[in-house]
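hey m, so remember when u said the C-alpha cells were messed up on ur end? i reran from scratch. heres the input so u can diff it against urs
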Amino acid sequence: MSLIVKRRAKAAGYAAADFAAHSLRAGFLTSAAAGASLWKMRQVSRHKSVQVLSDYVRNSDLLKDHAGKDLL
C-alpha cells in the first residue's frame, strides 16, 4: 500500500518521501472522527479492534488555544 501512495504522490508532483500509507490512514481517521460514527470509520478502515483504530486518530485540536499560537 505504501508504494502505491508514494507512486501516486510522485505522479502528482509531490515528494514521495513525504507520504506513506500510515499517515494517509491516520489523517483520514482523524478527519472522520470529527463527525463520522465509529461504526462507519471501522467499515472504511477495516480495523477489527476499536483500540487499534483509536490509536490512528490524532488530536486535531492540539494547537487550539495554544499559548504559543502567535509564534507558529
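this time it looks ok to me. Residues 23-58 form one domain. if urs says something different then somethings off w ur setup not the seq
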